[in-house]
Amino acid sequence: MTALPSALSSVPGRRGLVALAAVLASLAAFPSPARAGEPVPHGDRLTVTVRDAGGGADGTYEVRCRPSGGTHPDPDAACAAVERRTRWGRDAFAPAPRDTVCTMQYGGPATARITGTWAGRPVDATYDRANGCAIERWDRLVPLLPEVGRAPGAPGA
User: Is the pTM of this model over 0.70?
Assistant: First the structure.
């Protein structure tokens, strides 16, 4: 007979079996590592769709992080841009809070949608350049999102 873990061996009968079943059920909830020959699960994956950005930036790009890859022109820098925005307990893709005061400037017709998974959480975020807050939110994710709307010589250009 196999010995039970010490915490369970002192619990008599049915209670011990219930405790053992609980331990086994909790272990089953953890994903098992890939076996030899099986593909290793990928890290974070994002799909970025950009419209009306101009300069050949429009299209749909796949970005994989950890390890980086995909069809994005610079997946390493794209992953780094999102990583810089990632904080425990905060959504890296969250819109500006509703009560934020934003400048009334127009950054052009560019729009983007980002879907996928980041830090184990689903992502479905939309972006535009309709005001100062939206422009700043977009620019924080460059180069995941393309750099648009900056004149040569402007700060950050």
Answer: no
